[in-house]
Amino acid sequence: MFNNKVIIITGGSSGLGKALAQRFVKEGAHLALIARNVKKLESVKEELSASCRDGQKIEIFSCDVSDYDSVEQTFTKIVKILGAPDMLINNAGILKEGRFEDLPLSTFRETMDIDFFGVLNCTKAVLPLLKKKGDGRIVNIASLGGKMASYGYAAYCSSKFALVGLTDTLRAELKPCHIKVYLVCPGEFDSPMVEELNTYRTAENRAVTQTVPVLPLDVVADKVLRGIRRNLYLIIPGFAGRLLEWGGRLAPAISRFIVDYRIKKVMAKKDHNKKRGA
After folding, report:
1. Is 68 one of the catalytic residues?
2. For the whole model, what pTM was predicted?
């Protein structure tokens, strides 16, 4: 299915982007990996090249996806080196946690610039190329945080809700052009981003987000690949995540109750510990 296909992966130097790259290499695809950190990209290329077949290509590109001019120049280079792309996986993203009143406006702008406008920029750049070919795939990695809010994720959920809305619109607009669009909404999973988050996250955030068990990275990557193969528009790895999303749509009041209950438990424990300390 992916043999000799040209696949662009943003955020391809680590986490889910790298895990997907490993899988597509085994499928015989040619890869264009985009990230900001050149050293990480070089390391991933060296690692993946060991699994390449004869003639299979892996190219790396340092690019800030929040800068449209840089994205456009990068995509032009990709076409010259690898040819027109068959699939774009918009995976690049950042995650900052904190209470709304504590987060500076710069965090909201940075998160929106990368998590939303980064996807928009790359999609704008790739769309003429896919339309010229007459088919193609766009995979947007969003989050369950784009389907329901969570404590401490004012910036993150805002960007992911916007991304879900954009992706829903793209699906409708691009289907007549024979361009398939996929929306991936995982819960929390093992990744460098989550490892960093664990060093400072609030107890309330942990309690709410981990209502859905943390998934292994390989499980998420396998489910994403399987969803693309099956042409599923909405891909939610893990049964618990799918159940929560389903419940959030059909019974939002119950979902809000569960969130409020878990936050209340954390705050009650804090109050108890404070009184004991006093």
Report:
1. no
2. 0.94
